Please model this.
Amino acid sequence: MLIIGRMLLGAGVGFANQSVPLYLSEMAPARLRGGLNIMFQLATTIGILAANIINYGTDKLHSWGWRLSLGLAAVPAVLLTLGGLYCPETPNSLIERGKTEQGRHILAKIRGTEDVNVEYDDIVEASEIAQRVQHPFRNLLQKRNRPQLVMAISIPFFQQVTGINAIMFYAPVLFNSIGFGQKASLYSAVITGVVNVVATLVSLGVVDKWGRRVMFLWGGTQMLLCQVIIGIILAFKFGGTNELSKGEAMAIVILVCIYVAAFAWSWGPLGWLVPSEIFPIETRSAGMAITVSVNLLFTFVIAQAFLTILCHFEYGIFLFFAGWVVIMTVFIALFLPETKGVPIEEMIYVWRRHWFWKLIMPSDDLPSFEEKPTIVQ
Model:
């Protein structure tokens, strides 16, 4: 039963991670798409924090506390199921299936105005192109979809090698060092959970003002500095048999919180937002499926390899992941164009203006893209 439960939980997480960001990206106006999409991540972080608090409370109930903790997970599942019954189909989905009038009605309703002709025409045009595509996964390999495919693989991979697992693994040990005792795991989970929620709120407020690239770059820089400093401190302390003093452990705990905040307002939510908004409609579902698959695959790989890496690198594991943060930050700086405020049906033109991807993508199948207007609603 436990194995079946874990399989169902994994399947549910996979479905949610694929469908919810796509749904929000298609429903949201371009100028608010980032913030509305990150509300998915915010709900996730609040759920994690609530679960940690429940675990902390039920831990005092001794033999049957874990049953209550596990059973309460059914409450959000029921709410999600009931809430889903009231969610309308996206205009993109309706129009693609030939329900054009219904799609226009939903589009006008969610935009709050009948003046949706330009956006409606863009969706219709994209849907007509999508209907000619019979093999979405095979179509992803075409040159016109090459940059989106690269991002669908790279971003979830980089998200898993940020080192968040290393930080979360060390957190209970550090909290134990400053006097939290045997409750260190629960205390650290609650404290980092609060930091996670607050930082995600910050991300929600600035993502449509600052843009995706800025947040990726600043978040990567913040994580890099924290990892390097933690690695250096531990290198000096654990080069021999020395233990951390409470002051040193407290400093590292503060760095851990700053690191978690950096991940929570950058690579955490943006790892789902950006892949959900960059694909054209004909490959959108297939592209997001690849993103989720890569994310779950490397979650598994990191989880299996983590202890082996930790045993060999010890404190150097922070510098190991810091190296990956350097690579991924440079990657974003060079190859990810800004997608803030761009309607998802117009995203193809963003890639065609990029200094590198315009060399890869053919230009003969989309004439005069330089003059294509960008609509920000």
In short: DSSP finds 18 helices and no strands in the chain. Confidence is low (pLDDT under 50) at residues 1-11, 367-371, 373-377.
